[in-house]
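Colleagues,

Please find the record for the three-part complex below.
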Amino acid sequence: MNRTPGFAVFITLIAAAAAVAQEGPRPTTPGPAQRTTGDSIGPYNKQVVNEAAADRGRHFYATECVDCHGPTARGVDNKGPNLVRSNIVLHDRVGSELGPFLKKGHPLQSGAIAASLTDNQIADLSHFLKQRVDDALKRQPMGDHINVITGDVAAGKAYFEGDGKCAGCHALTGTEPRSLAGINARFADPVDLQQAMMFPSGRGRGGRGRGGPASAPVMLTVTPAGGQPITGELVFLDDFDAQLRDSSGKLHTFTRTPTLKVVKTDPLQAHHELLDRITDKNMHDLVVYLETVK
Amino acid sequence: MQLRAIAFAAALAAASLYAQKPMPTDSWPTYNGDFSGRRFSPLAKINDHNVNSLGLAWMYRINAGGGANNSPRGTPLMSDGVIYFSSTDNAFAIDARTGHEIWHYVWPSTGARHFSNRGMSMDGNQVFFETPDCHLVALSKEDGKLRWSKSIADIDQFYYCSVAPVVVGHHVIAGVSGDDLDIPGFIEAHDPETGELQWKFYTVPMKKGDPGMESWPNQDMASHGGGMTWQPITYDPDLDMIYVTTGNPQPVIGFANRKGDNLYTASICAVHADTGKLAWSFQVSPHDTHDWDSTEAAVLFDAPVSGQPRKLLALAARNGKFFLLDRITGKAIVSTEFVKTNWSLGYDTKGQPIPNPEKVPSLAGSLSSPNQGGATNWYPPTFDPLTGLFYVNANRAFSIYYLYDATDNPQGWGGNDRGGWQESALEALDYQTGKIKWSHPWEGASNSGLLSTAGNLIFTGAPGSSIEALNATTGAPLWHSRLASGVSTPPTTWELDGTQYLIVGAADTLYAFTMLTK
Amino acid sequence: MNVARIAVLCALSTAALSAQQPGGARLNGMPTDSWPTYFGDFTGRRFSSLAKINDANVNSLTLAWIYRMSAATAAVNPPRGTPLMSDGVIYFSGTDNAYAVDARTGREIWHYSRVSTVGRHFSNRGMGMDARQVFFETPDCHLIALNKTDGTVRWSKVIADIDRFYYCSVAPAVIGDHVIAGVSGDDLDNPGFIEAHDPETGDLQWRFYTVPMKKGDPGMASWPNENMASHGGGMTWQPVTYDPDLDLIYLSTGNPQPVIANANRPGDNLYTCSIVAVHADTGKMAWAFQTSPHDTHDWDSTQPAVLFDAPINGQPRKLVAQAARNGHFFVLDRATGQAIVSTEYVKTNWALGNNAQGQPIPNPEKLPSIAGTLVSPNQGGGVNWYPPTFSPLTGLFYVNANRAYSIYYLYDGTDNPQGWGGNDRSGWSETSLEAIDYQTGKISWSHQWASPNNSGLLSTAGNLIFTGAPGNTFEALNATTGEPLWRARLAAIATVPATTWELDGTQYVIVGAGDSLYAFTIR
């Protein structure tokens, strides 16, 4: 069990948490990627946090509870337990459990008598505590911002030009499609630059969804027996059929047979192979380096 | 083909190699068809010679109504010509020959995450399933009427329930889900007639003195340590042993407050069926920090290792590792990877992986392979005793794990992964070595359960909304049908009136295929 | 398929072909690599010469793919129109929606959707196509042309006034340089018609009214006055068939208006409930044959007018056959309109034999009445819009036929009823798939269904009849004997008639049920 950050940090953390949009947690493993219908966590009669009441509850908590239960209500070693894990708090609905529990007698920092707490004070406290539970439930970064700017620019440049083998495909000036000119302005948030750099084909599940569409489509070349090859963007491919769209936009469908030749070419293959070589340090260095590329 | 079935029967009779009883062919009485989890059917009327003539017999369209998940994922059960299956809050009985509905039961829900429902169990006259709001429900097979229901977990603590129960002897074994808050995982055994609780096995130490407590910093972290029991258990009737696989520790990604191996999260636990006491455990992901539940099927089979007959347990795990254990002792025989991973530094003396401390989640992001979805997931693998191969739909996947809560007392998740790239394949592993005998790549992911049969076939869902049959020996694709949506329930098979059926579910529809030609 | 059957196929085809010269091949040969019109070709026989799927191997039919429409569009109406196919792409329509689906994989290529302001969303019965476009009608009576490649609109023309309670559901037919469109709507008293439009621009070329509109028009004598005639109904629900040698369009027309109440329209009410032959270039009538003179039971004669060349009494003849709503089966000479066969295909109780022209004489005692009149067939009819099939190999005309009773009530007993003025109510019916000998009208075999079956038919040279069947089943029967050979139970009733074609040497059979299209094949 853990420690007590300072009061200033407490205010910052609480403010930050409150500032975050109350977004529902996403489904996670094990299980299918898509959300199910009617998906909501917890019981149907879950308490909806009243923000104004939680604010009042925060002031009450700061005055009466924080020394023992910690700034995020997650407890303090040898003092007060983690309230986010408390069955009383979890079963509570706007004071239904908290009220009777506190009124039986509970230490308050100011020395006030718990039995004299009003119903409004208890309700406010309940909303504040439920807000702390919600903080634990949500799966967002603190402050809703992932900070990926931790690398070394020079090391990133060296990797880009050296072991990363990036410079061979990506110029830093010019307008050809793979040029990275102006890359530092292309993404509002550096974490999106990191994601696009690592996963340019936009596939993959991850915790926050699939990323964007592929930046360069996979191509298919199909050669019927004794015929001419036909090339185009891969539309669909499995063991039995192949579909491509040629440069004029026409859709071609082929039923696969032993004599039908199908060749797939992925222009982003080098990025996929990079995943086995690149270290996290390389990744962070590259991001800060690319953030300097105008 | 008949010859193959005869050959198999002969081998079965003669060899001590395949001493296990084959699964029934006229029913599918439990989640995996039988207790072993092999999902191997001895039926061969549909086989690699005639599978191209597999015809559509019937379709059943589910209409469970709003709020319920109309897309069941649980393997349907069958007995006496009636198919039973469930979705969230709903249970159905349909005629196995015609697909006509016989009854439909709806549970009035009080909430909780309607994530999924993974199936049912049955005894002579009842079927059992879990509801999202954590009730274990028993219905009469004949008319779907409620016989009893018992609350098995507190949804105020953000448990929810999706697991298929398993009836073992006189016990209905039920597992739980829920990793939104930090709560302990467990399985319970209930009396099939009355629903009364018989015993409860926690997957984490709950009080001082409980085994495994030393692998947690203190009792509070241990008793809130996770280890959900998402996967239906497998069972060895001779040893009277239940094999439980457990989920990730809590907090999930934020890990600063749970130093230690965090037993028995992300583990295989052997539990005595009569008492619920732990016999042995093997940890698949010590001190997991990537949400790699080890809740994949613990597949039991008897087969030779280095020429000696052994009682084995195989697991292809979320974290990309394949393990072959002696299921009597829990000792590892094989510890290897079935997809290339980047998060571990070899194996310890027990054969358990050693996590690389450089690959824990970080604020700026750590590139991980596999990703959170994992090298494989809940959907079942299969072991075919005729080929000696362990088949699994595998993903080679990368993503970046971000730590969100860098304080020293994270709660709940405290982080997540994001983005990614993957390629998928159906892999056939040699069980004795874990090496890949053949690998059939998919264009896109196939998160589908598998079925193997004595007809030398593997049935699987495939990308492009197909149900596909492959040659079990070579991996050559043989047949497919493109359904109205992607396959979502593992395929099953049985025989009625001398005709073999293949059943598969895709979204809100159950399909039955059969061989009409002789 | 056995040698004897091949020999018969060759013999019949050759005989038919030689009787057809010049250009007869166009009439006889439905293409095998496409399905370019509502009926597959212009004849309406719905007979395919493909025999790779046949009575010996149909048990090996496997499900190739399913295409499922989005729930939102299917909820309005499940499609009923036969899908078309050309160059490996399937085109089909629903109310206000059109789709292109890859024929090999069942994957969607494009989906066009619009909103009809008003108009009864009764159904949509299909599309027409030329080389670059597909055409279909919308409930609010637009005739729309879409680009085959991407489903974008090329032109759109209003073809009827929905304020007058017309609505549009009919599959257009593309005949030469004409897109022929029909109309529906019997809620108010309106005249029926077909129009021909230019395929490139959509401009109106001609319009043919099915009832006399002004003094001097043919058939006016069969109405009491001009007002009743020009509001006399005769909707054109069924897509036309066409003989390219005679350059004649064969149109079938709906019931007269007012529908049930009939006091203000004594007379035969031409050309309602008729088969009408119309010159394709001018839109002028060549001949007409009324299957239900002075109809009072809502027995639209809007069933397909099926064209085939076959011998009568040993002489090769150009024929047109219809199993009509009223329970009667007719075979006419399609050049002259003269009746050759005029019989019942289900037992009925409303006619007193046939007149000299071979038309049934309605029994005045079986008119609807205030207190109710027991009539067979019922309003749904001995058969309805769903297509029959004629197999030149068996010489049989197949139809899913209802033997049905109901009671017809007259609501409006005044002498100037409007709209319906009555209706039928409840009843009893049984359905059978009947195989009718075209030379005599006699039933060669009959396969009874356990419950009503309103399904269209397909016959093939594999000696098979494909039909929907009760219990959401899709079934194949032996075309010669009627023995059921194969079935698959789908997720809904088969509402779209089966079609078949060959791609890459593989034969597919396609059927639609509810919100899905299904493709079956032999691998």
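Chain B is about 5% helix and 40% strand.

Comments are welcome before we finalize the supplementary table.
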